[in-house]
């Protein structure tokens, strides 16, 4: 998204609003505030007619099993799982079988919807069956350019792309440290760097370090980014979207990553791991859920998405995956430490430096050039 368009659709307000809501509310027994959750009878009736099953396609056992177990127990719906390892796999799966019989796809990227919707693979949502979503979604999420009003998908959480470092190994006092430029151009930590195994994120970060939009489709700008990426390559130990092992074992000292993944490693394994919101800005987006047109149990999928937007249920999800919420009240349940993690708090004025999802990055010439860069990088 162009910088000038941020103020038009208000997308980047989502993280600031979610944090402010949490701060204003403060620690409280939030569960006592929310008791009535509408469950449309027509939806429940349809679930029973469908056979009370839900086929879930999710990212590599990411979500808490307790969430699914509680859903099954309350509504008598059997949940059957299948998993994907990255968002490109989601696209490949549905290209091979447009009517793949998944009822709901969870935790994917908005680009999945951008690519699959024109192919007739994404169903339009029935908001009569999603009263909790209508009530509790942060308003900024309803104004995204690729799906205004969220007619074809809903966000379950937000995310910021950033980088993390081991503060026991890396000197963070040097000038220019908190930048994408440092990650790409420093030579001191050669062989200790991992970058995301994702062409959009690596190319986007390089573009931001050069002062351009993350989503640029300008060939000259992308060629500058390519030169920077190829120059960095000899210093990169791995392109890895989940470098947890290397971080835990002390092999990776600097890692391109996402705010939630960095939080989990910091919170569970490596307390010395810290996160950097780069001064140039970054990509701010959302983890997205949709119902495919091949779904055999669309009512059960709606029932689940409506359940997911119960405040306590959403809080369980966010606490587990460590990503900023898309729900108005989830921050009320979170610890002060989580609220303070980079990506949850955005410095004043930082939003104006950031970009968000734009179709020009994942379609047409923008995608073609990125594919060319990625193919050369991986040779």
Poorly predicted regions are: 1-32
Radius of gyration: 20 Å
Number of domains: 2
Give the class-level CATH name of the largest domain. Answer: Alpha Beta
Oligomer description? single chain
Share of helix among residues? 25-40%
Specify the overall morphology: globular
Mean pLDDT: 90
Q: What is the beta-strand fraction? A: 5-15%
In the CATH hierarchy, the architecture of the largest domain is: 3-Layer(aba) Sandwich
Distance between the termini: 30 Å
Q: Characterize the largest beta sheet: strand count, sense, and whether it forms a barrel.
A: 9 strands, mixed
Helix-strand string: HHHEHEHEHHEHEHHEHEHEEHHHHH
SS field, number of helical segments:
17
Q: Looking at this structure, what is the CATH superfamily of the largest domain? A: Periplasmic binding protein-like II
Verbal overview:
The protein is of the alpha/beta class and 379 residues long. The chain has 2 domains: 210 residues, Periplasmic binding protein-like II (D-Maltodextrin-Binding Protein, domain 2), CATH 3.40.190; 154 residues, D-Maltodextrin-Binding Protein, domain 2 (3-Layer(aba) Sandwich). 40% of the residues lie in helices and 15% in strands. The chain contains 17 helices and 9 strands. Strands 1, 2, 3, 4, 5, 6, 7, 8 and 9 form a 9-stranded mixed β-sheet that branches. Strand 1, helix 4 and strand 2 form a beta-alpha-beta unit. Helix 10 runs parallel beside helix 17. It is globular and about 60 Å long. It starts with 5 loop residues before the first helix and ends with a helix. The relative contact order is 0.22.
